[in-house]
Design goal:
It is a single chain. This protein is α/β, with parallel strands linked by helices. The protein has three domains: about 70 residues, Arc Repressor Mutant, subunit A (Orthogonal Bundle), CATH 1.10.10.10; about 140 residues, Aspartate Aminotransferase, domain 1 (Alpha-Beta Complex), CATH 3.90.1150; about 240 residues, Type I PLP-dependent aspartate aminotransferase-like (Major domain) (Aspartate Aminotransferase, domain 2, 3-Layer(aba) Sandwich), CATH 3.40.640. Helices cover about 40% and strands about 15% of the residues. Strands 4-11-10-9-8-5-6-7 form an eight-stranded mixed sheet, with helices on both faces. It has a four-stranded antiparallel sheet with strand order 12-13-16-15, covered by helices on one side. It has a two-stranded antiparallel ribbon with strand order 1-2. α8 links the parallel β5 and β6. α5 crosses α12 and α6 packs parallel to α12. It is globular. The chain starts with a helix and ends in a 5-residue tail after the last helix. The relative contact order is 0.13. The structure holds pyridoxal-5'-phosphate. The site of pyridoxal-5'-phosphate (PLP) has 14 residues, from α7.
């Protein structure tokens, strides 16, 4: 390795020690002599690396003094995957740079709650699977699809044949795949109705796959089916009937039936995004819309992002029998397999052994506690309202004052708490009230309290 490469290696190593918390602000870094000996490099290499680190602001070196990690850098405020992904203003540099930045945006469940033994066993199963001189099945590993079908039968009220289950790389790929299938079948851009406010990443995925989107308002019962019936020809509609995203309404059976009736009459496809339905904090779980589908109009989308770990990037679609199935299956075949087979093997193991069910039992109780905390604290504040709390892992908080959601989000970020503004979910401006979306899935109760304290401070209201 050349000198430059060696220096870069030392720089990367010290940076990593700061990022993972091995070294924190104020800690002395090893002397150049000690580190050079430890790494087996020339002392000059370490001196050059420390100069570089000083120049970048990671450490402070002064003649004759011990070099120390600079103030204001430490574990915890490095951009997470989530921060990097989001282009909506959170990561705009306005956020606090303290070491205690709290990410309370929706989308992250309690991943770490899974029993380490179960998690390891699943990956051992993946490692132990016999190697094969073969390609993966584009529709997904048959064993995983069978487990998914069985799980749907137990938890969601319908048990599809395995052939109807197709594995996708997350919900976005599922929606993109369905859009592509519809486009190929229709020979033109499909017109897709979406909830307003609704799921942004889903909208992005469908537009980039060639859909023309139309926003349809949602009310306390979910998407407004009367409006849907009036907006002209629609090829598909995407809905979150069990827990409208983000506002949280549950679509009652009467509206479900009229939605299915509309789809049957018009030939439209209803795509059900069943993203967090396993978590219901009040009453019994609501069966999937697909469980009511007598005419084969529902494409059901589910996945492991909320139940297990969004980093797995594994979801699935359940296709109704008929032409839509054929079109989407053809697109799957053309795109090829998208979820690495070892991931699918590990997931199938977690399902087959009951590890996922045990994990869900555990986190469900935790989520219910967190949800209670939000409900109790918000109830004590006049002018503040919490919604979306009957299920899932996020709360929508709205207020009676005039503060805009985006301003509240920016001010909370300056105090070290990241949340999302309700406006970010709008298709047409003004479709959502001023408010924030707070994800509580991965927060401890003290963290949740801190997020709520900061919100109250920003809104200048007092909780009891
Ligand atoms: C409405 C909705 N659908 C689906 C998902 C899951 O997305 P993915 O499967 O791409 O991780 C989320 C995650 O936040 C969501 O909010």
């Amino acid at each position: 390795m050349d000198q430059f490469g060696k220096t870069a290696g030392v720089v990367a190593r010290v940076r990593a020690m700061v990022q993972d918390g091995t070294l924190v602000a104020g800690d002395a870094v090893p002397s150049t002599r000690v580190l050079a000996a430890e790494l087996g490099v020339a002392r000059g290499t370490v001196v050059a690396a420390y100069e570089q680190l000083d120049g970048e602001g990671w450490i402070r070196t002064r003649q004759g003094a011990v070099a120390r990690v600079a103030a204001g850098v430490g574990a915890g405020h490095w951009p997470t995957e989530h921060t990097a992904r989001d282009a909506t203003g959170h990561a705009d540099g306005s956020a606090s740079t303290g070491a205690d930045l709290l990410d309370a945006r929706p989308g992250i469940p309690a991943v770490t709650a899974i029993a380490a033994r179960d998690w390891r066993a699943a990956w051992r199963a993946a490692a132990d699977a016999p190697l094969r001189n073969a390609l993966s099945d584009p529709a997904g590993l048959p064993e995983l699809r069978a487990q998914i079908a069985a799980q749907l039968g137990l938890a969601r009220g319908f048990a599809p044949e395995i052939g109807r289950v197709v594995v996708t790389a997350g919900t976005a790929e599922a929606l993109s795949l369905v859009t592509e299938g519809l486009r190929n079948r229709l020979g033109r851009a499909p017109v897709v109705a979406v909830e307003d406010p609704g799921y942004r990443s889903g909208r992005r995925a469908m537009t980039s796959a060639g859909a023309t989107l139309v926003g349809v308002p949602v009310d306390g019962d979910g998407i407004d089916v009367d409006v849907l019936g009036r907006i002209g020809p629609v090829d598909a509609v995407i809905v979150t009937p069990t827990h409208q995203y983000p506002l949280g309404s549950v679509m009652p059976v009467a509206r479900r039936l009229s939605l299915l009736d509309w789809a049957t009459r018009t030939g439209a496809v209803v795509v059900e995004d069943d993203y967090d339905s396993e978590f219901r904090h009040r009453g019994s779980p609501v069966p999937a819309l697909a469980a009511l589908d007598a005419t084969g109009v529902v494409v059901h989308v589910g996945g492991f992002s909320k139940t297990l770990d969004p980093r797995l990037r594994c979801s699935y679609v359940v296709l109704p029998p008929g032409p839509v199935h054929e079109a989407v299956a053809a697109s799957r075949l053309a795109r090829g397999p998208v979820v690495a087979e070892p991931v699918q093997i590990a997931l199938a193991h977690l399902l087959r052994t009951g590890a996922l069910r045990r994990h869900l039992g555990r986190v469900r109780r935790d989520y219910t506690h967190r949800r209670e905390r939000v409900a109790t604290r918000v109830a004590a504040v006049a002018g503040l309202e919490a919604r979306a709390l009957d299920g899932g892992l996020h709360a929508v908080l709205t207020w009676s004052g005039r503060a805009a959601g985006r301003d509240v989000v920016a001010r909370m970020a300056r105090s070290g708490v990241l949340v999302s503004a309700l406006e970010e979910y709008e298709v047409s401006p003004g479709s959502a009230p001023a408010g924030i979306v707070l994800g509580y899935g991965a927060l401890t109760l003290p963290q949740l309290d801190r997020a709520l304290d900061v919100l109250l401070e920003v809104l200048r209201v007092r909780g009891d």
